[in-house]
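name: query_chain
kind: protein
chains: 1
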Amino acid sequence: MKMLLRNMISVLGSSLVGVGVGLCVVTGLGADALGVLWEGLAKHLPVTVGQASLLVTCTCLLIVALIDKKELGLATILNPIATSIFTDLMIKQVTIQGEVVLKLLIVIIGISFIGIGSGIAAATNAGKEGYIALSFALANRLSIDLAKIRMGLDLICFVTGMFLGGKFMVGPIIGVVLIGPLLKVTTQYCGKKIQPLLG
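structure:
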């Protein structure tokens, strides 16, 4: 029962990530840095953006499997599914029109959802999605602050994606700054609240 609850909370967090990504996408200002990398890879490899996403996820999981398998679990499979469903749902159902300032505010809200949702999912210890698992595995292995690791990874993805021809958008820049710290703070806060309930 406790494992079921862990996975349900984890999927809920990943659903929030999907809502955040969807909100960012519909503004036209971009989401997180991974999207820029996927787009860049798709321009240089015989793959679609979606396939590039899968390629990056598999690469992250391979690295995590080599350095810290405890970051993986059932939610490693469930969470990306929940994220993709809610991302698509938001893109289909939400239309945002208005001034750039309004769109920037929505991007900040969306990016915040990504960081907070990722933290909720991670705090359950039910298994982490590939990129998040990589962030935690590297932070543990290198003994470097989680927020700094995530910000560094986001920056590498953004710069690499830009170098490969991905579009320059403001969303990924906001993501580099916000997601790492929000992931760390939310994971710590939710960990304290969730773990006593789950044992």
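note: The chain is about 80% helix and 0% strand.
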